[in-house]
Specification:
Number of strands: 25
Oligomer: single chain
Strand content: 35-45%
Shape: elongated
Length: about 400
């Protein structure tokens, strides 16, 4: 019998194959649907305090302390866990330079999606470029301070003073910005223009010895000075530009350098203003001050410029005639982790106490000798002139 194929037989075989395929599809679909209905889903987003998305956040789904699943947020800050069993879970979030966050008791229900959005706070040790007052948030304003403080402070002697808190305090001199640190007292020593006297937790730190100070990323303590090791002259600080103050107290932080035996403080400056600023003020005893600042956009970044002019005579019989000029120019571009910031600071000041005394040269100048006429004071060059350039990337 010759080999051949019956068309009816082939048709029946093909039909049976299609029927089997349909049955298998329905079966697997039913199983999949049943699994979907038997499990839940947890999803959400991770962002910073400004609302910006945080990619790369490690998200852990924990059941009874055991990690059941791990994922990461995408470029838009989104994450999701599918096929989550019914029950309660802990969801943990972690990212370098940000405080870890754990949300407890997240309930997963069958066939439902739980939306869990979180906001992560920067740690005090984070190396960031502050781009506005709103980026340095008050930890007391978060929804759940107990959880948001996890990883922020290692001890009660570590903390932060925010821009919002600073705005509620009157500031007459630069040292009063540092005085916001609990337990730190700063007195004005020998008139203006000289480094203040520092007292922390009752200890006299002279002119800043053993108290490490950084302003706008620039170390202030002087390794050598006639007034003492670690001399800290913060008169160039401009209060309006301060975005926050980070502090540590106690001899526990060797990474803060030689001058941190009693504590340390880091004063952060803004990189971008919410709006241009102009301030004029005047008071008794010849006190007056002018300040202006702006941060226009430039070449994809921002150029911050600010200048402060200050004059004061003080309560002295011989007027102090204190004159100070502070300024800053900063160009910043990009984010904190992959951007660049170039900062230039300058400070000039002069006062009567620094004027040149011509008593010993009065005869050479043909000036009369005898009595009080022996003393002649004349305007001198600025007592202090400082220019600092910093590049951060």
């Amino acid at each position: 019998m010759p080999f051949g194929c019956d068309s009816d037989v082939i048709a029946r075989i093909v039909g049976r194959i299609w029927a089997a395929a349909v049955l298998l599809t329905c079966a697997f679909g039913s199983v999949s649907s049943a699994q979907t209905l038997a499990h839940g889903r947890i999803a959400g987003t991770a962002s910073d305090t400004t609302g910006g998305a945080l990619p790369g956040v490690v998200v852990e789904l924990r059941a009874n302390g055991v990690v059941a699943a791990v994922t990461e947020t995408d470029r838009a800050g989104r994450y999701q866990f599918n096929a989550v069993d019914t029950g309660e879970f802990d969801v943990a979030f972690s990212l370098i330079n940000f405080a870890s966050l754990v949300r407890h008791g997240v309930r997963s229900e069958a066939g439902q999606t739980v939306t869990l959005d979180v906001v992560l706070q920067l740690t005090l040790s984070a190396d960031v470029t502050v781009t506005g007052r709103r980026t340095f948030s008050n930890l007391a304003d978060v929804d759940n301070p107990a959880e948001n403080l996890i990883g922020i402070a290692d001890a009660a002697s570590v903390g932060a003073i925010t821009a919002r808190q600073l705005e509620n305090r009157p500031v007459m001199r630069a040292g009063e910005v540092l005085e916001t640190v609990p337990g730190l007292i700063i007195s004005q020593h020998s008139g203006e223009g000289k480094a203040n006297q520092y007292y922390l937790r009752g200890f006299n730190l002279d002119h800043g010895t053993d108290f490490s100070t950084t302003i706008a990323g620039i170390p202030v303590n002087m390794p050598t000075h006639a007034h003492g090791h670690g001399y800290t002259d913060a008169n160039f600080l401009i209060p309006e530009l301060v975005s926050g103050v980070q502090f540590k107290k106690g001899p526990y932080y060797a990474d803060d350098g030689d001058f941190s035996a009693a504590g340390s403080v880091n004063v952060n400056y803004l990189s971008v203003l919410d709006a241009p600023m102009v301030s004029l003020s005047a008071g008794a005893q010849g006190w007056n001050r002018a300040f202006a600042a702006a941060s226009p956009g430039l070449a994809g970044g921002h150029l911050l410029g600010a200048i402060e002019l200050n004059h004061n005579d003080g309560p002295w019989a011989l007027e102090d005639n204190y004159r100070k000029v502070n300024g800053i120019v900063r160009y910043s571009r990009g984010a904190a982790i992959d951007g660049i910031a170039v900062t230039a600071l300058f400070n000039l000041f002069d006062e009567t106490a620094s004027d040149i005394d011509y008593f010993y040269t009065s005869r050479l100048r043909g000036e009369p000798a005898g009595g009080v006429d022996d003393v002649h004071t004349h305007p001198a060059l600025p007592r202090a002139a400082r220019v600092t350039l910093q590049i951060g990337f």
